[in-house]
Write a structure and sequence with these properties.
The chain contains 9 helices and 6 strands; from the N terminus they run ααβααββαααβααββ. The strands form 2 sheets. Strands 1-3-2 form a 3-stranded antiparallel sheet. It has 201 residues and is mainly alpha-helical.
Length: 201
């Protein structure tokens, strides 16, 4: 695939809201109102970003009376993603990621929570290893309310209750898609957007 086509593809995806829309659409056809509710934006915002994605051929639309439904253009997204990887890595080949069994993942999760949290629920220290860090972050956000908006000061107090370095924890939550931030207000992302520690080797 030509470089200019790859650039066009990535320009269409160079927006956090559009990426979040695509992640949600990976679960199947969804209407604009549902997307707006899940992402805590206005329907007009969804319409705007959907037009950008449609122009880049990343999604399909269909109208049913007054409701517009969106679906991923799976084949196009996969082919462009693969074309980008091929361009970057060229002749390099990556081994397929190893998958942990469900039982092994559960045992690891229990082990990490036991080793990194005190009996009264305090975080001893932030794990350096990504997989363990994601397990810890996932555990923390399960204590937050879905759909509730948190002022930065409020979120800091919540995180400080677990560990004094609340600023690092807050940044990690954003970085790994557990939460999103807009105008110093924080809210949980849909669970399907969270970084998946289970897929890491």
């Amino acid at each position: 695939m030509q470089l200019d086509k790859i650039i066009t593809y990535h320009k269409a995806m160079s927006d956090a809201t559009r990426i979040r829309m695509l992640i949600l659409l990976a679960d199947g056809e969804t209407n604009g109102q549902t997307l707006a509710e899940k992402l805590s934006v206005t329907p007009a915002t969804i319409t705007h970003h959907a037009s950008k994605l449609r122009e880049a051929n990343l999604i399909h639309e269909r109208r049913d009376k007054n409701t517009i439904y969106f679906t991923l253009n799976d084949a196009f997204i996969r082919s462009n993603g693969q074309a980008t990887a091929d361009l970057i890595f060229k002749n390099k080949k990556e081994a397929p990621a190893s998958m942990e069994t469900e039982d092994k993942n559960l045992n690891l999760q229990k082990s990490v929570l036991r080793n990194f949290f005190t009996l009264d629920g305090k975080l001893k220290h932030i794990p350096a290893q990504l997989k363990k860090k994601l397990i810890v972050l996932e555990h923390l956000v399960t204590e937050l309310e879905k759909g509730r908006s948190y002022a930065e000061k409020e979120l800091n107090l919540f995180l400080k209750n677990y560990h004094p370095d609340f600023a690092t924890l807050r940044r990690e939550l954003i970085m790994h898609q557990f939460m999103f931030r807009e105008s110093e207000v924080y809210e949980l992302n849909p669970r399907e957007m969270w970084a998946k520690w289970e897929t890491l080797s």
